[in-house]
Write a structure and sequence with these properties.
Layout (H helix, E strand, L loop, with lengths): L15 E5 L6 E2 L2 E2 L3 H15 L3 E5 L19 H8 L3 E4 L5 H9 L5 E4 L6 H5 L2 H8 L4 E4 L21 E3 L1 H15 L5 E5 L8 H7 L5 E4 L1 H10 L14 H14 L2 E3 L3 E5 L10 E4 L8 E5 L1 H12 L3 E5 L12 H15 L4 E5 L1 H9 L8 E3 L3 H7 L5 H7 L1
Parallel strand pairs: 1-4, 1-7, 4-6, 5-6, 7-8, 9-10, 9-15, 10-11, 15-16, 16-17
Antiparallel strand pairs: 2-3, 12-13, 12-14
Helix pairs in contact: 1-2, 8-9, 10-11
């Protein structure tokens, strides 16, 4: 898809630029505990400020449902934004109207201001044209740098792109370019790793991927549902037995499209879900006892999956292979992640990963920085994997 970037913005000196960012930051005891999303937006904000633009940040924070909630004011995070940017950031308690107009008047070229939580206004989530118009009246340019909110057709994620000259910020640009390489026009063969607890949460992802990739590697609890659909007794493992027909349909669709589905043939089992339990053992999937549960992919299958990655050129990863938060059920996830990272470092694999559990799993394996791209977007990344059109992205290409 084609979209304009900051490279096409021209002379920004003195221009008022609305920059949609993601400042929905985790907090504890009134302090920001993770500034990753601010770090992602930093290059765009500073590039525009250094070009002499007056930068107005737009973002949501929590779910105030159209009401002013003091604990969800963006004033809570401005200090963290200032610390990351190394610049002073003015906080503005409105997003439109005369107050913002006055701020624009006094803000120097290169100045940065953070407007209030956009979700304090009911028109934000309704994508109200009147609110869009009111916000746009105080600006010259719109930049969207919040891919994580691009699956929402809200006033500040989609509406503004239709009424102002619109561009993708550096973080959005990097995300879209990485996703394009992964499933848009990928170099083949393409592998997808899809893990997690339940098939039901990723049905649309699986249905979409079997028509897009050459190898589909299924891990986590959802692999148990597919094993059960194939007649394997998975004991007391997490399993959605009622989805067996759906799993069969996905396997049939994969066969029809030439996609090879990889399920574990040896597994790590235990009678209890606890760290290093005494009942821990590795066995063939057909040897799982009635009182045991599958908690990770076994070593033989993990090695075979690593061999699959070695013949692929592109990898998309979403979800862990086992219950990685508890040792030793992180073994398969860590091993496969390190294989993907090594292949990426040597230049033979383009690797794109995303989703909350995935980021945590790759960080746990110590390889998040070695993948070609790791998306911190949750819902937006998942919807992209489902093949859906993301309103905030589509608006930039219109």
């Amino acid at each position: 898809m084609s979209f304009k970037t900051l490279d096409q913005i021209g002379d920004a000196r003195g221009k008022v630029v609305l920059v949609r960012v993601d400042l929905n930051l985790p907090m504890q005891d009134g302090a920001v505990t993770d500034d990753t999303r601010v770090q992602a937006a930093k290059p765009t904000i500073l590039e525009l400020a250094d070009k002499g633009a007056k930068v107005l940040l737009l973002a949501h924070f929590g779910r105030p449902k159209g009401e002013r909630v003091s604990t969800q004011s963006l004033s809570m995070v401005v200090g963290a934004v200032e610390q990351v940017l190394g610049r002073e950031v003015m906080f503005v308690s409105e997003i439109a109207g005369p107050v913002v107009s006055q701020v624009v008047g006094i803000l120097p070229e290169g100045g940065i201001a953070c407007l209030e939580n956009t979700r304090f206004w009911k028109g934000e989530e309704k994508n109200d044209p009147e609110l869009v118009k009111a916000i746009a009246e105080n600006a010259d340019i719109y930049v969207n740098d919040a891919f994580s909110a691009a699956h929402r057709a809200h006033a500040t994620t989609e509406g503004l792109a239709h009424v102002l000259p619109s561009y993708a910020g550096r973080s959005m640009q990097a995300e879209l370019e990485a996703l394009g390489k992964a499933l848009g026009e990928p170099e083949r063969p393409v592998a997808a790793v899809v893990g997690g607890a339940k098939v039901s949460s990723k049905l649309d992802v699986l249905k979409h991927l079997v028509g897009k990739v050459d190898h589909l590697i299924i891990g986590g609890g959802m692999a148990n549902t597919f094993l059960a659909a194939r007649g394997v007794d998975v004991g007391k493992s997490l399993c959605e037995h009622d989805l067996a027909p759906t799993a069969e349909a996905i396997l049939d669709a994969a066969d029809a499209s030439g996609c090879t589905v990889h399920l574990p043939y040896d597994v790590v089992v235990s009678k209890e879900f606890a760290a290093n339990p005494p009942s821990l053992r590795t066995c063939n999937v057909h040897e799982v006892a009635a009182d045991e549960m599958i908690l990770d992919v076994g070593p033989a299958a993990t090695e075979a999956l690593a061999d699959v990655l070695k013949v692929c050129k592109t990898l998309v990863w979403n979800g862990p292979m086992g219950a990685f938060e508890t040792q030793p059920f992180d073994t398969a996830t860590v091993a496969l992640a390190r294989t993907a990272a090594a292949l990426t470092r040597e230049g033979s694999l383009v690797s794109v990963a995303g989703g909350g559990d995935t980021v945590a799993a790759l960080s746990h394996a110590g390889v998040a920085g070695d993948f070609s791209y790791v998306s911190t977007a949750g819902g937006a990344f998942l919807e992209w994997m489902e093949g859906r059109v993301l309103p905030g992205v589509a608006a930039l290409s219109s």
